[in-house]
């Protein structure tokens, strides 16, 4: 097991132990389920964004795209029902993901510049469509956000299934190895037969779809679609969790499991500070410090990795292509 992942697990256990000792409310089933429910959408987007960063690419637009998809889905669901709203949210996320994928994966523009541009444009468009919060959502959509099955919130079930799919794809399918290969050395990955441009584009689309699903989950949980605050700062939380989970900013390394543990650590930190009545401003500072520590940790790991020759295990098919070339 990766040393950084081991340290992350130990840090998470110690943090949970500290909050359990400091507050009797922390280590209760209701509170732990509440943490999972509040961060269900973060788990989904972080898993997708983690795979994207493993390939060496980043998406800084996820928070604003969540707002845009949530507002559009709210409009549609009010007039045409929950199913139409869900489809709308996924379509909006897919369209933005495709746009990012074309500009970055196909044309080769800078991931940070493009997604920061989309970050500003999507937030502005969401507020243009709905300057305030949208209410009057269908009862079944609100029920999805507040309901439970077998004692576990429905949103947690949804996040669990989707994260399990991400884990399976990244750990058991060739796409996972291709992601690491692209992040380790795009040129070498191309020479082994991986269509790097198309692959990166697909990763951005996957992130977009994940954001669309997360948007409708957030709207359902909140019971409204506030264009100004929905997903605000979400990209920072996602990036913090991904870096904390052991994925370096340069890609080529990491796992979905590590990313999910990173999300859980951030969620536990936020919940514990709230239980201890720490002001919101201080919580923001703590999150920023954690982000810097995560970035420093991933940079250290990357530097250690650069001292070793890069070895990426490829599938038999891609290896055969490399031999034929």
Structure description:
With 325 residues, this protein is mostly helical. The protein contains 15 helices and four strands. The protein has helices at 3-22, 29-38, 40-54, 62-80, 82-106, 111-129, 139-146, 154-172, 174-184, 186-191, 196-222, 234-244, 256-275, 280-306, 316-324, and strands at 133-134, 148-149, 152-153, 225-226. Strands 1-4 form a two-stranded antiparallel ribbon. A two-stranded antiparallel ribbon has the order 2-3. A hairpin with a 2-residue loop joins strand 2 and strand 3 (152-153). The longest helix has 27 residues, at 196-222. It is globular and about 55 Å long.
Features:
single chain; 325 residues; mainly alpha; two-stranded antiparallel ribbon; 4 strands; 76% helix
| H/E element sequence | HHHHHHEHEEHHHHEHHHH
Oligomer: single chain
Which regions contain 5 or more consecutive residues with pLDDT less than 50? 308-325
Major beta sheet, specifics?
Answer: 2 strands, antiparallel
- What does the radius of gyration come to? 20 Å
Number of helices: 15
* Mean pLDDT, all residues: 88
How big a fraction of the residues is strand? under 5%
Assign the structural class, choosing from mainly alpha, mainly beta, alpha/beta, alpha+beta, or little secondary structure. Answer: mainly alpha
Identify the overall geometry.
globular
Give the helix proportion (percent range): over 70%
Largest sheet: spatial strand order: 1-4
| Count of DSSP strands | 4
How far is the first residue's CA from the last residue's CA? 34 Å
């Amino acid at each position: 097991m990766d040393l950084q992942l081991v340290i992350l697990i130990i840090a998470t256990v110690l943090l949970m132990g500290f909050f359990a000792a400091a507050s009797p409310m922390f280590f209760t089933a209701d509170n732990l389920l509440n943490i999972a429910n509040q961060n269900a959408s973060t788990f989904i987007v972080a898993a997708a964004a983690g795979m994207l960063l493993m390939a060496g690419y980043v998406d800084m637009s996820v928070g604003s795209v969540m707002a845009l998809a949530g507002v559009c889905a709210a409009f549609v669901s009010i007039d045409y029902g929950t199913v139409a709203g869900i489809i709308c949210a996924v379509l909006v996320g897919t369209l933005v993901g495709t746009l990012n994928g074309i500009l970055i994966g196909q044309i080769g523009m800078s991931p940070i510049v493009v997604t920061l541009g989309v970050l500003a444009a999507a937030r502005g468009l969401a507020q243009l469509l709905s300057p305030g919060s949208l209410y009057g959502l269908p009862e079944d959509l609100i029920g999805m956000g507040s309901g439970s099955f077998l004692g576990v919130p429905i949103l947690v079930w949804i996040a669990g299934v989707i994260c399990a799919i991400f884990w399976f794809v990244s750990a058991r399918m060739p796409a996972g190895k291709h992601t690491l290969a692209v992040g380790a050395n795009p040129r070498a990955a191309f020479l082994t037969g991986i269509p790097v441009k198309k692959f990166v584009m697909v990763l951005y689309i996957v992130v977009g779809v994940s954001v669309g699903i997360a948007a409708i989950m957030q709207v359902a949980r909140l019971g409204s679609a506030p264009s100004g605050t929905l997903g605000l700062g979400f990209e920072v939380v996602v990036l913090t969790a991904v870096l904390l989970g052991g994925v370096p900013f340069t890609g080529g390394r990491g796992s979905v499991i590590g990313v999910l543990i990173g999300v859980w650590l951030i969620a536990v930190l936020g919940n514990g500070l709230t239980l201890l009545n720490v002001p919101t401003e201080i919580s923001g500072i703590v999150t920023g410090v954690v982000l810097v520590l995560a970035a420093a940790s991933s940079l250290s790991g990357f530097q250690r990795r650069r001292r070793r020759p890069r070895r990426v295990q490829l599938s038999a098919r891609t290896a055969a292509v490399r031999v034929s070339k």
